[in-house]
Amino acid sequence: xxxxxxxxxxxxxxxxxxxxxxxxxxxxxxxxxxxxxxxxxxxxxxxxxxxxxxxxxxxxxxxxxxxxxxxxxxxxxxxxxxxxxxxxxxxxxxxxxxxxxxxxxxxxxxxxxxxxxxxxxxxxxxxxxxxxxxxxxxxxxxxxxxxxxxxxxxxxxxxxxxxxxxxxxxxxxxxxxxxxxxxxxxxxxxxxxxxxxxxxxxxxxxxxxxxxxxxxxxxxxxxxxxxxxxxxxxx
Length: 235
Known about the structure:
By secondary structure, this protein is of the alpha+beta class. It has four domains: 8-33, no CATH class; 39-103, CATH 2.40.50.140; 106-168, DNA polymerase, domain 1; 187-234, Orthogonal Bundle (Helicase, Ruva Protein, domain 3), CATH 1.10.8. The chain has nine helices and seven strands, in the order βββββαββαααααααα. It has helices at residues 72-77, 106-115, 123-132, 135-143, 147-150, 158-168, 187-198, 203-213, 222-234; strands spanning 12-18, 25-31, 44-53, 56-61, 64-70, 84-94, 97-103. The strands form two sheets. A five-stranded mixed β-barrel has the order 3-4-5-7-6. Strand 1 (12-18) and strand 2 form a beta hairpin. The longest helix has 13 residues, at 222-234. The chain is globular.
């Protein structure tokens, strides 16, 4: 029987999805309000690179192939098809679409997420922008108010370039200041971070907690490492 409007069941959607191991199907309850924690649905993908094209990569993880939109710099640095690859993911959700945008370098993902906050710049244009100029050069052009240089990027007119400078100039780090390098993580550690981000924790906080909990857990199982990191976050 259909649930009555206003009941907890009516505010959720029941979907069937394959369990991670085996072929057993399980029922999952998802909130109908997709805006909740929507940007953190998928934050990282590690798996087999099935195919790559200048604007697309297909990554297989746990038997599922994910279609990821990528930039030209990311495409150029991808390994050959069939190799293992790890991508930092931005999940973009609309009423009619869930799209994944992938980056090999965290700095490129961060700049992408800054670009889509600019009025008139959506994810597709942001990918085009990042394909037209290296991220560090673009940061320097924005901070240096170099409108002429920005307008040389395909798809960027003077007004868009001016908005990029106006809205992002004070939000970007100086071009000559390198962000601290992200620590090298094992596949299990990346899975722990991804799971915590999916639960709503901010990635920097999750990474700090993992560093605290993982001092003696470098070779631990996912379950043990996840529980210890979660406990560290609760302190």
